[in-house]
Specification:
By secondary structure, the chain is an all-alpha fold. Helix content is 71%, strand content 2%. The chain has a two-stranded antiparallel sheet.
Length: 207
């Protein structure tokens, strides 16, 4: 049986030609960009006084993409991308989480944008209230400086001070969590100074 001879070079030649045309097009686009007001990732980072790693982080998060990448891997950013980065940095300065910025950038709807910003505003308001409560607790201690130096301060007296400063039970739990996170050894000493037994100290530190 005689099998027909297939000239594979036709298909290969087509692929090579297409690939070559693709590289030529991208090379031409890159040269064109270099002639315009475009920036490398380092230049873009320097312009906005952030680290190069931050720009690349936003890229990994899907928030910022380069206008084009050259054959040697260089990223080039145009005016549109620079403006998008400005928006990202603005939202971050407002405390908006990275995960929520995409919806704001895409502006999927004024209602979605409004809801996100309102939620962030409410979150900041709650944080401010907590900070004010902590201020009150500090003021209460400053008004009674001898309390910290006396071993006679009991758990009950400490709770009364915190409640007078506006702390409820959940606020006090959060206070202990932050104390444990920032200064675990000092937290242990503080709880011991209140005369609390070992089991309860362990429970409080595990809040």
């Amino acid at each position: 049986m005689v099998y027909p001879v297939v000239d594979l070079s036709i298909g290969l030649g087509f692929k090579v030609k297409n690939t070559t045309q693709h590289h030529r097009a991208r090379h031409h686009r890159t040269r064109h960009l270099r002639g315009s007001s475009v920036l490398t990732v380092t230049q873009l980072a320097n312009k906005y006084r952030i680290s190069r790693a931050t720009v690349l982080y936003y890229e990994r998060a899907g928030l910022l993409k380069p206008t084009v990448r050259s054959d040697n891997g260089y990223r080039w950013y145009g005016k549109k991308e620079a403006e998008r980065l400005e928006s990202i940095l603005a939202y971050r300065s407002y405390g908006v989480p990275v995960a929520q910025i995409q919806a704001l950038l895409d502006r999927e709807g004024s209602r979605a944008q409004e809801d996100i910003l309102r939620d962030q505003f409410n979150h900041l308001e709650a944080e401010i209230r907590k900070l004010r409560q902590q201020q009150k607790a500090i003021v209460a201690l400053l008004q009674q400086p001898d309390l910290m130096g006396k071993p006679s301060v009991t758990k009950q007296r400490w709770v009364e001070i915190m409640q007078a400063a506006g702390f409820d039970e959940e606020d006090m739990i959060q206070w202990h969590r932050q104390f444990e996170k920032m200064e675990p050894e000092e937290h242990q000493k503080f709880l011991e100074s209140l005369g609390i037994d070992t089991d309860e100290i362990r429970r409080i530190r595990n809040f």
